[in-house]
Amino acid sequence: MNKRQSRVFAIVATGLAAVAFIGLTLHSHTRFDDLTNAADITPEVTQGKDVWHKYNCINCHTLFGEGAYYAPDLTKIAQHRGEAYLKAYMRDPSQFYDEQRHRRLMPTQNLSDVEIENLVRFLDWVSKVDNQGWPPRPILVAGGTTIVAAQGTAAGAAEAGTVRPVRADSDPRAIGENLFGTAVPVCTACHSLQPGVQLAGPSLAGMAERAARTIASPDYTGSATDVEGYIRESIVSPSAHLVPGAMFSADGTSFMPNTYADTLTGEQIDQLAAFLASMK
Fold first, then answer.
1. Residues 146, 269 within the same domain
2. pLDDT higher for 257 or 49?
3. How far apart are CA 162 and CA 154, in angstroms?
4. In terms of Cα–Cα distance, which of 248, 244, 240 is closest to 201?
5. Model confidence over 103-160: pLDDT tens digits?
6. Same domain, 18 and 45
7. CATH number at residue 122
8. Is 76 in contact with 123 (CB distance < 8 Å)?
9. Do 44 and 28 belong together in one domain?
10. Where does the Cytochrome c domain lie (predicted)?
11. 139-142/145-148 β-pairing
12. 216 has pLDDT over 90
């Protein structure tokens, strides 16, 4: 290739690249409203964004991976935690930590009820933006230490001897084990399978024995009659029975999301319950 041919090739290649770039940019702009759910941007969502900036939340947290990395990314926090948890947490973060043991890092911002409501609406809108799978996994924070969800998975618990290993794909427990790490919201965002590891929700180690004791208790307010029924009830109607004194509910509402009946089929819920009931 001589100099003239090289020059022509460079000009043509640059032109084609520029056309492709402009075309992709224009196409992206036509998709922004759909990808960001622009139709769902209500005045409350906008005001919630203002609260986010007013209190400099981005100085510690990230959205879509943008911001500071001092605290967890909150892109999907509304799906992982749910409205009841977020509202209680924002009112008083100290209730979720033992400062002497965990070194509470989240300051109490003294937000008004309106600010909390709007901020929750904003985070809910953020969680529904099509972000192409980012963040790739939920990041959990416990005891002042950032850990990835893999540490709370069934595989890790099996190594610790807290869950009966199941491998056959046809076994409902095996399918339930997979659902535990893939359901939306993902269970591992709030629950560990290892004894004593409390996240946003209680550890599920020893779930079978604990469920049996709860059903037998005169204080039980649900309608389940066996262990798997209790677990199923906890997944579908988490506020049916609230554990007295536990910091996993507020104002008579469990922090557990109540959307699994919509996102999972009845068969999937049974498989998840079968897996959790296998933990002794």
1. yes
2. 49
3. 9
4. 248
5. 667 888 999 999 999 999 999 999 988 887 766 655 544 433 333 443 344 444 444 4
6. no
7. 1.10.760.10
8. no
9. no
10. 43-127, 171-280
11. antiparallel
12. yes
Q: Is pLDDT above 50 for 218?
A: yes
Say how far apart CA 158 and CA 163 lie, in whole Å: 5
Contact criterion met (CB below 8 Å) for 154 and 193: yes
- Domains of the chain: total: 3
Let me know whether 150 and 271 are in one domain: yes
pLDDT, mean of residues 245-267: 88
Q: Where are the strands (E) in 143-196, listed by range? A: 145-148
Q: How many CB atoms lie within 10 A of CB 115?
A: 19
Q: How far apart are the first and last CA of the chain?
A: 73
Structure tokens at 201: 């929700």
CA 69 to chain centre: 18
CB 188 within 8 A of CB 149: yes
| Residues 188 and 237 placed together within one structural domain of the fold | yes
Examine the domain organization and report whether 29 and 40 are in the same domain: no
Residues 130, 135: Cα–Cα separation, whole Å? 11
Residues 265 and 195 in one domain: yes
With CA atoms as reference, report the closest residue to 138 among 130, 127, 129: 127
Domain end call among 89, 117, 136: 136
Give residue 40's domain range.
36-136
Structure tokens at 159: 């190594």
